[in-house]
Amino acid sequence: MKAKHIFSFFFSFLFIINFAQQKQDSVKAKWNYKPNFLVGFDVLNAGIGLFSHRKIFQGFVSSRIQKNLHAAANAGFEKNVYQKNGYDATVNGPFLKLGAFYMLANDAENAMNGFYAGGKLAGSFYNQEYKAVPVRGYGGSETSVAFPSSNQSSYWIEGTVGGRVQLFESPFYIDVNIQPKYLVFSTKQEDIKPMIVPGFGKSSGKFNIGFAWNIAYYF
After folding, report:
1. Which of 73, 1, 2, 8 lies closest to 37, judged by CA?
2. Distance, CA of 139 to CA of 136 (rounded, Å)
3. Counting CB atoms within 10 angstroms of each CB, which of 43, 70, 123, 213 has the fewest?
4. What is the pLDDT of residues 110-168, one digit of tens each?
């Protein structure tokens, strides 16, 4: 009787090991990641910066982690000026965005070509200076006050909808996308909300729209 229990336990143990191995092999088959990267630079906004106060330099890197799922990260630096409604402010600093997107439709011959949609979490850590902030003076007169430069931070979420296409038979791609953005939180100086956030744009409202036209290289 004891021998019967031992054999039953032994074969049950082998069955469990075999089942676990099959599950592990199945996971490996589904998760067959091969290192691949698409690195791009936003040439449109960098070019516009030559003719405006807004100087922004940004790039991205993405990697295909499953059939149609891609991880993505954006990083950049922005310097800008806000002069409106009595405000005179300057800002500069880096920003970072992390997220993923899904290929909604792609080319049967090249899975990197197609249209995609996704989302990202973003943040910026920047330096701002208020040279003039409008305030009510004595007797209702309008005047302004200045504040020294300070370090602030802002955080937002953004969607991304776009498409990419390969340039002939080269490893280069054109990647174009728009980014609807929603500002979640910002630190304040003297209880004044920031006028501009690097990477987000003008932040007088919670919503904003970004646009990028990238040249990218795949390897």
Report:
1. 73
2. 8
3. 43
4. 989 999 999 999 999 999 999 999 887 666 677 889 999 999 999 999 999 999 999 99
Closest CA relative to residue 150, chosen from 87, 92, 82: 92
DSSP, residue by residue, 154-211 = EEEEEEEEEEEEE-TTSSEEEEEEEEEEEEEEE--BTTB--SEETTTEE-SSSEEEEE
Query: Domains of the chain: which residue ranges?
Result: 33-125+151-218
Q: Does domain 33-125+151-218 have CATH number 2.60.120.1440?
A: no
Can you give the pTM of this predicted structure? 0.82
| Residue found under tokens 């792609």 | 106
| Tokens 């249209």 sit on residue | 115
Query: What is the C-alpha separation between 93 and 79, in angstroms, rounded?
Result: 7
Residue 70 tokens, joined: 């891609």
